[in-house]
Each structure stands twice: as structure tokens, then as C-alpha cells.
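Hmm, what's this shape?
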Amino acid sequence: MIKLIAALALLAPMASAQQILSTLEGRNRVLLVFAPNALDPRFGLQLNALEHHEAELASRDLVLIPLLEQPGPPNPSPVLRNLRPPLVQAEEQIWIRRRFNVAFDDFTVVLLAKNDVEKLRAHAPVSAARLKQTLDDLHDARK
């Protein structure tokens, strides 16, 4: 019985992380931004690159999900405030990082199409122009 409870406790974060992504599948494109912590300069550069483009990105059904091993102080970025990313708990991050093969000390940006297929992966901040072009290409490919 104890083994069963322990196994279920281990599966709960996985189910929750899968649920976050599965609730977005078919409705939204997802931009996963992995960084070691909120103070990582690359994380700041990524948020700065998206600043002033929130409306355009939201109109393309984009949801931003930051995945930070050490969240640190609340980030006042307008990008995070305007795109209202879902909060991902530490246990859920482990599952998502394993799924996308991203170590906790890596900076990686992953764009998922509405069908949950990876369409872009970068190890440096992605410009808003490149992101919008990739999103538009995904939209055009569906026509």
C-alpha cells in the first residue's frame, strides 16, 4: 500500500504538467522559456525581445510559459503581466524539462505548435520578428 501511495505521489506532478500542456493543445501555441533563474541575463533579454509585442503574440494564440529552476523575486515584466503565463510548480518543471531534454542550468526557448509539435528550439533569446514569422508560417501551413 505504501509503495502504491509513493508511486501515485510521483505520478501526480507528471499528470499536472501533462495537464497544463494538454489543456493548451489544439487551442494555443506555447513558448517555453527555460532558464536557471529569473535573474539570468538571457531570460531578461528574452522578455525584453517580446516586450511591446504582447498583443500581436496573443492574437496568434501564443501562451508563454517560463520555466525557472529558481524563480527568485516576482518579475515585473510587462510581457509576463500581459501574457499571464500559467504558474508551473517545481515538480511539474522536472517532467517538462525531461520531456524537452533541457537541463536546469540551460537556457532554451521551445515553440510548440497547436498540435504540441516542437517547431522552434533556440539556445539564445529569440527575436519577436523571428517568433512572429515562425507563428505566421505555422498559421499559413494550416491553410
Observations:
- The two ends are 52 Å apart (CA to CA).
- The chain has one domain: 2-142.
- Residues 1-15 have pLDDT under 50 and may be disordered.
- Strands lie at 29-37, 62-70, 108-112, 118-122.
